[in-house]
Design goal:
Blueprint (H helix, E strand, L loop, with lengths): L9 H10 L7 H8 L5 H21 L1 H4 L6 H6 L3 H13 L4 E5 L5 H8 L3 E6 L2 H13 L6 E5 L12 E4 L4 E2 L2 E2 L10 H9 L3 E6 L13 E7 L2 E9 L6 E6 L3 E4 L14 E5 L1 H5 L3 H8 L2 E4 L2 E6 L8 E11 L2 H10 L2 E8 L6 H8 L7 E10 L2 E9 L1
Parallel strand pairs: 1-2, 1-4, 2-3, 4-7, 8-10, 16-17
Antiparallel strand pairs: 5-6, 7-9, 8-9, 10-11, 12-14, 12-15, 13-14, 15-18, 17-18
Helix pairs in contact: 1-3, 6-7
């Protein structure tokens, strides 16, 4: 699919309606039928777009995804709507009324900003991507607030805008790019662009080394439904601040510069911090809140004697602590009639699926157990428990 224009015609839109919700197994039959009355290339493009819309529903929801236009890279790289909406709310709270959205892709962030009442200049260098962004602004009734421009982002004058948002490409021909200076454009250029505006946000990979974060930036790690989605560097807010934000909510944990938690004996409860908390290096803040400590100095599991519900960690009640031994685990699961086994690991080389296959080859019980493959005070250990 190299051109969206045919799909934007009345015939193309009618075909998109006709193929909406087509299951993969039915595509051949649907294509054969539709090609009797429509050009084969247009039918293929419509079916391809239908597949992309189905994939995009997880990020944008069925209603929006069913009206939007996507490219394969656009589906893969676009921001989840809930995360984009949260970021737009932060911009709005800062008093931002206009944003230059650089590396805007198919317009996911521009849509969220416009829905927050913010005027947006959406810039991308790829013709097909900008065509999709323009079509999406029109399809969702936001064209009056979103100007889409095909250009090199490094040549765009952002001075007329209250804020800059940059989402540099972090994928290349060989997959994910981990070096921030290998982003397109590089992080150093994005930081320079950010410091020229009253406010700015730079979307970066969650795994960025903390030492690579500029001193003048606030760093925020965001998870949605327990999955870490991104990190953002904010400028014009609170330099040096570190936060973990969990969606839905939002619930935000601020860093207080605490030292690493002490290692202590395993208590009755085990807390698994949210991935955003771990990436933000805020496990100490959670441990202090729980009056707990670490089970091992290198493992981000917090243990405590009492139950303290927290949005920043999932809590389990531990029933057994065993040295790593598959035969003993298998016998224990059989004795307790376990038929549902969840395996988590942190600090173990054993693959969860491998252990599940060996320890519970024929699930037949009615009870459920969670097994943690980890280390306790340096020793390989299996912890058995259930959500508290």
């Amino acid at each position: 699919m190299n051109d969206l224009a045919p799909l934007l015609t009345p015939e193309g839109r009618a075909l998109l309606d006709a193929v909406r919700g087509t299951a993969p197994a039915d595509e051949l039959a649907v294509a054969t039928r539709l090609r009797r009355d429509h050009p084969a290339e247009l039918v293929s493009a419509a079916l391809g777009q239908a597949r992309l819309r189905q994939r995009a529903a997880a990020k944008f929801g069925d209603e929006d995804a069913g009206r939007m236009f996507f490219t394969p890279n656009g589906v893969e790289q676009s921001t989840r709507a809930s995360v984009a909406a949260y970021r737009a709310e932060r911009f709005q709270a800062l008093g931002v009324r206009s944003v230059a959205d650089l590396c805007s892709g198919i317009g996911g962030d521009a849509i969220a900003l416009a829905r927050a009442g913010i005027r947006v200049l959406a810039v991308d260098h790829d013709p097909l991507t900008t065509a999709a962004a323009r079509a999406n602004a029109e399809a969702l009734g936001l064209a009056a607030l979103i100007e889409v421009r095909e250009a090199d982002v490094t040549e765009v004058d952002t001075s007329p805008y209250d804020a800059v948002f940059v989402d540099p490409a972090r994928r290349g021909g060989r997959g994910r790019i981990f070096d921030p200076e290998a982003y397109s454009p590089p992080l150093s250029w994005a930081v320079q662009a950010a410091t020229k505006a009253p406010h700015a946000a730079l979307k970066i990979a969650p795994g960025i080394p903390h030492e690579a974060i500029p001193a003048e930036a606030e760093a925020e790690w965001i998870s949605d439904g327990g999955d870490v989605k991104e990190a953002v560097l904010w400028f014009g807010t609170e330099p040096g601040t570190v936060r973990a934000t969990l969606l839905p909510g939002p619930r935000t944990l601020l860093g207080r510069g605490l030292p690493d938690p002490q290692v202590r004996p395993l208590g009755r409860y085990l807390y698994e911090p949210d991935g955003a908390v771990i990436r933000a290096h805020l496990v100490a803040e959670v441990a202090e809140e729980l009056a707990g400590g670490l089970i091992d100095e290198t493992i981000a599991y917090v243990t405590a004697d009492e139950l303290h519900p927290t949005p920043y960690a999932t809590v389990y009640e531990i029933t057994d602590q065993l040295p790593f031994n598959v035969k003993k685990l298998k016998a224990l699961l059989r004795e307790r009639e376990v038929g549902i086994l969840t395996v988590k690991k942190r600090g173990s080389a054993v693959e969860p699926e491998e252990l599940r296959r060996k320890a519970l080859p024929k699930p037949h019980g009615r009870n459920a157990v969670t097994v943690f493959l980890t280390r306790v005070a340096g020793a390989p250990t299996m912890l058995l428990g259930q959500p508290a």
